[in-house]
Specification:
alpha/beta, FAD/NAD(P)-binding domain, 3 domains, seven-stranded mixed β-sheet, two-stranded antiparallel ribbon, 9 helices, globular
Amino acid sequence: MGYESGRDHVGDLRISCDVVVVGSGAAGSTVATELALSGVKVLVLEEGARVDAAEHGAMRPSESLRHVWRDGGFSVAMGVGDSPAINVTMGRVVGGSSMVTGGVCFRTPDHVLDTWVREHGLTDYAPKAMAPYFDEVEKHLHVETVTPDRWSRSTHLFDAGLRKKGEQLASLRRNTKGCHGCGRCNFGCPEKAKMSVDLSYLPRAVEKGATVLSHAKVEKIRFRGRRAIGVEGRVLNGKQGRPGGKLVVDAKRVVIAGSAWVTPTILRRSGIKHDVLGKKLTLHPGFRMIARFD
């Protein structure tokens, strides 16, 4: 139980559990925590390392890209048709991409939820039905509105420009607690102020008996007939963190939460076939605006 690293194991590794969760990001950590709180024996597998705040603070941005980001920060989605290629930010670390985001948190808009209900019959996702879940998650993540004292100089200038136009700036809401605005969000918070899931969810899972194994790369799901009975892959205990011993997990239930990017590849390698598997990915690119104020 607790936090373990595949690098600390020599050779092959075989583990048994009730539920194995592949991925320690926002989805995987939430599922693992809820299951652990209900008394289930949970194993969380993470390909990346477990990196604490002090280590984040000691890393230069270039080091963070190598050790914390997937593909060194150069994952690229090639657009379909006229859509451009888009750089995709993803974490490869305990905490997943929640570790390398800016911490912006916003609820799925009601009009989007209403569309899901109206066009797809997903009545469980109606705004009123989702509200208590949003409330609970925001409580654990400590989602708060960014106050003006933490705005950057550029934000204050943008606000001044909007006021002259008769418009009002609305602050973002972020999962922070005690943030001093050091600007290191995308490279792992060195102050434990950004409440990524390695701080807000996984500790509660571990407290209830869950095990988080880092440096464990899952390659495919194991089946008996049509039933998933575990996963297999590699323990990254080779030289320079490369694949070493074989990893086999026996589990009653399997949860693949490796992101919209990695999960389809695991499913495909597992022999699962579906017309839309690995397709229909949509992204919301972010970009900076540069303006000259006269």
